[in-house]
Write a structure and sequence with these properties.
Distance between the termini: 27 Å
Order of helices and strands: HHH
Structural class: mainly alpha
Number of helices: 3
Strand content: under 5%
């Protein structure tokens, strides 16, 4: 179980960094575009859609990480030396 937690924490941390960088990039590009089009200085913010996308990102990152971490659970058993 600790290996799976470690992999999940690392994957979710990478997702947080990715979402943060994507948000900064989107704001950098979308604010000037919104001003140029005449929609004001800030693009429209749709809360349900944004929360849904962030939840989907979390699942898309955590599920494969948990599935690939599962084989690591038996490593200690596989390479353990007995006191023979």
């Amino acid at each position: 179980m600790p290996a799976r937690c470690c992999v999940l924490y690392e994957a979710l941390g990478a997702a947080v960094v990715g979402v943060t960088l994507a948000a900064l990039t989107a704001l950098t590009c979308l604010v000037p575009l919104a001003v140029a089009v005449g929609n004001g200085p800030m693009p429209a913010f749709d809360v349900p859609w944004t929360v849904g996308v962030l939840a989907a990102v979390g699942v898309a990152v955590a599920a494969p990480a948990a599935m690939t971490a599962h084989p690591l659970a038996g490593i200690r058993r596989q390479f353990a030396r007995g006191s023979e």
